[in-house]
Amino acid sequence: MAPHKAPDASRRSDRSRRAIYDAALALVGENGYRRTTIEGIAARAGVGKQTIYRWWPSKAAVLMEAFLDLAARAAEQAAPEGGGETDSPGGGEYGIPDTGDLAADLKLVLRATVDELNDPLMEAPTRALTAEGIVDAKLGAEFIEKLLDPQLALYVTRLRAAQEAGHLRADADPRIALELLIAPLTHRWLLRTLPLTHAYADTIVDYALGGLTPRP
To answer: Long-range contacts: 177-181, Cβ < 8 Å, 24+?
Structure first.
């Protein structure tokens, strides 16, 4: 008779945590942040609400962790082979590549960003949390600190490397420079003014670098 094997609690916890992540993201995308509840997340995930309260102090904490996990997985999948490596919010490693061709590297990353923003799995919860972060200052600050700032730091690192290599004006502020790249994508995506495409991403890079490259 084969010996009895005790259930693996860690595997069971991982499955429950993943189910909670998926339920939280689905509900915030379907119903918005304010109408999403711990009870609803628990019911969708098939767990007791006490399980959620044991792991997270609030609905905001559940959703933030679920979104960070989703963003980290998306970044890992989008990271090109041979690209730079940087610690991600979710613990993986990804970064903006440095091939020596700044325009090509930025186009690669912005195209991946376009794909993420157009992905239905990412789009609905991103819109919901972005909207709520505008009216909820605490949630907005957490969103910036835990998700946005680490991603923007990758651009700063790559742009500073370009400055050191003489591919970018030495007096250019990397933070302002990255906003010239990111802001147009965000504007078009948030307001749905026009389609968000790879061609648009490429044009943004061309326009931005046209004003940032060293002057003769």
So the answer is: 177/208, 177/212, 178/152, 180/204, 180/208, 180/211, 180/212, 181/106, 181/110, 181/155, 181/205, 181/208
How many residues belong to the chain? 216
26-60: per-residue pLDDT in tens?
A: 998 888 888 999 999 999 999 999 999 999 988 88
Query: Read out DSSP for 176-190?
Result: HHHHHHHHHHHHHHH
Question: Does the CA dihedral 41-44-45-47 come out positive or negative?
Answer: positive
Confidence check: pLDDT of 178 > 90: yes
Lowest mean pLDDT among 101-105, 142-146, 153-157, 165-169: 142-146
**Residue 91 burial (CB count, 10 A):** 10
List, in order, residues 6 or more apart from 146 with CB less than 8 Å away: 64, 68, 89
CA–CA dist 59, 71 (Å, integer): 18
CA separation, residue 190 to residues 111, 141, 145, 186, 187 (Å)? 17, 19, 20, 6, 5
pTM of the model: 0.76
Give the C-alpha separation, 96 to 79, whole Å.
8
Number of neighbouring beta carbons within 10 Å of residue 13: 12
